[in-house]
Amino acid sequence: WSSDVCSSDLLDLRKRHPKCFKDGGKEVIRDQASCGSCWAFAGATAIMNTLCTSMENDASLYASPTDRYEVSVQQLMSCNAGKAGCQGGVNGNVASAATLKGLSMERNQPYRCATGKPENHWNNQMNGDCGKWPWGATCQEDQVPKWRYGGAYLTTSIPQIMTLMNQGVSLTVSMMV
Predict the structure, then answer these.
(1) Do 17 and 53 touch, CB atoms closer than 8 A?
(2) 112-149: per-residue pLDDT in tens?
(3) Is residue 30 classed exposed, middle or buried when 0-12, 13-18 and 19+ CB atoms within 10 A define those classes?
């Protein structure tokens, strides 16, 4: 790999796909509150970023020219076969939910394990229904037809990770500690 292939400007999806990352990506910052759902937030964000960079001009991705839709974290939590949610999960749980029920919009299935309203994620209070599956909501099938999930890819190789990043694919990373 030459240094110009791995330059930060080439790998910065905000610069390569500015339409997908309005305001430098700040608008998609979300909070899991006290629920251990980081795995679902990471998966939903990586999937949405990859969807957007792969079909940047498709109207199904945007509510308006300055507002990008997001993949529903709640759907990933409520619909995965392992029933993973606020007590943690892994990348495979994301793949399970996306494969079983497709991908839904956050606006149709908002995150329920804070105050129940996506605009109040920062309140940091978990509602009482989030202590066990289905994590404050029911599993619904309301997938966006153009949002296709192609599956997960597992790699442990740095060159493979670099190749995927250079292709504009967003990744999630798991570590055993």
Answers:
(1) yes
(2) 886 545 555 545 555 567 889 999 899 988 899 999 88
(3) middle
Q: Are 84 and 39 in contact, with CB atoms under 8 Å apart?
A: yes
Task: For residue range 18-49, list pLDDT tens digits in order.
Answer: 888 888 777 767 778 888 999 999 999 999 99
Which two tokens mark 39?
């795995």
Cβ atoms of 76 and 98 closer than 8 Å: yes
Report whether 66 contacts 26 (CB < 8 A). no
Q: Which residue has the tokens 């498709």?
A: 58
Dist. CA 33–CA 111, nearest whole Å: 10
Give the residue ranges of DSSP H helices in the chain: 8-11, 13-16, 38-54, 73-79, 91-101, 158-166
pTM of this structure? 0.84
- CB–CB of 81/92 below 8 Å? no
- Classify 118 as helix, strand or coil: helix
Q: Is the peptide bond before 134 cis (omega within 30 degrees of 0)?
A: yes
